[in-house]
Amino acid sequence: MATLLRSKLSNVATSVSNKSQAKMSGMFARMGFQAATDEEAVGFAHCDDLDMEHRQGLQMDILKSEGGEEGAEPPLEGDIHYQRDGTGPLPPSASKEGGVCSELSGQGKPKITAWEAGWNVTNAIQGMFVLGLPYAILHGGYLGLFLIIFAAVVCCYTGKILIACLYEENEDGEIVRVRDSYVDIANACCAPRFPTLGGRIVNVAQIIELVMTCILYVVVSGNLMYNSFPNLPVSQKSWSIIATAVLLPCAFLKNLKAVSKFSLLCTLAHFVINILVIAYCLSRARDWAWDKVKFYIDVKKFPISIGIIVFSYTSQIFLPSLEGNMQNPKEFHCMMNWTHIAACILKGLFALVAYLTWADETKEVITDNLPSTIRAVVNIFLVAKALLSYPLPFFAAVEVLERSLFQDGNRAFFPNCYGGDGRLKSWGLTLRCALVVFTLLMAIYVPHFALLMGLTGSLTGAGLCFLLPSLFHLKLLWRKLLWHHVFFDVAIFVIGGICSVSGFIHSLEGLIEAFRTNAED
Fold this sequence. Notes:
By secondary structure, the chain is an all-alpha fold. It has helices spanning about 1-30, 50-55, 100-105, 115-125, 135-165, 180-190, 195-230, 235-245, 255-260, 265-285, 300-310, 320-325, 330-360, 370-390, 390-405, 425-445, 450-475, 485-520; strands spanning about 165-170, 175. It is about 65% helix and about 0% strand. A two-stranded antiparallel ribbon has the order 1-2. The chain is globular, with a radius of gyration of 23 Å. Belongs to the amino acid/polyamine transporter 2 family.
């Protein structure tokens, strides 16, 4: 009897605790603070049948659960757990085809305002990697500033045309939403001859960007800790190993509910850090080196700067789900305008002010230029943010890999890595650990933040933000486009292609040279 009583009391306490967490999550959502809105937009907010359970755990508001066994307590709001065998509680409107997109865009579900959507986009394009923009100005001068503006205009435009590809005109002449995700758009462009080719290309690009983002987090963690404590007998590689040891538990993640609680704190901390850097730069305004900002460019290193700038604007991958979850989708264009205008102004000012302060001494991560008295404190906060942000892209990358290689029905390349009870098999866990170790090895052998960021921006950033949206827009809607839209799409595709190829080649050359140097050492 005593055991039964203790069991019931424990269950009641757990239920109250979980419901309290769900209500707090809903309260923050109503305030406009959405979970999983970290800057790298690294794919964890998109809904390409990628992370249904994870997205349910990070829902924009309290989800009202329905159904359940008779007499049993219904699933907790906002507490959908990650189960692969399909036995976990799922929303009634979620389907295998529609996935979480159907849930997010379904009728009667909580919607977000344009301001809340703007908060998501702002966090995606105003994130941690803006710390590399002053380094882009170092090699590009005024042309680098122009590119920050140009990239904002182009990414805003391609975001709008990507959403336009979600809609078609029905028999009654009404514009209706017929697609839910970036992958759906890609598959529609390749149908009927290759109905899944486009989605696979997009998924490969996502995986590369997600894994490279994880690598960048490890690189920046090692870099910041090494420069914060230069007197300690610990090398940058050793700091990267320590950071990876802290991140190894990510391999055991089943959902991101616990991690998502730190998302808001990370974002707010980053804004505070940016303000501190700008405040320090303004305090040295009398010593600004205006004569160092010139119109010439470093032909060898400037293409890398293009990739850095493009990578800082990547947000297209989650825009379809965001637009589908807005109360009034007609406000999407206006929201994109003011978010990208704000991003352009803030990024331009941050990059210019920081470069004017340190001029030719500007480093790859601008906080490394700060005086030692405040550098250590600022860098420790940045390292904490990097480590807390790492699980998001890692989890999304694992989801894409598992679904495409191990869980794609008869088309899967390998056996399912989950058992009949939904638990991860030991060899599946080993593969996850191997992915964490891979990010470490890349960070050790190529510990160059700017080169890796430039390579990622040139390869996947330009592809997902410039090339594919313009190509899809021409393919799906070319009969209804006005001549100036066709001109813009073609111009963006050509210019984006040239910048992408140039930046990729120069970044790859720099990485190969750095890899050889590290191998010799």
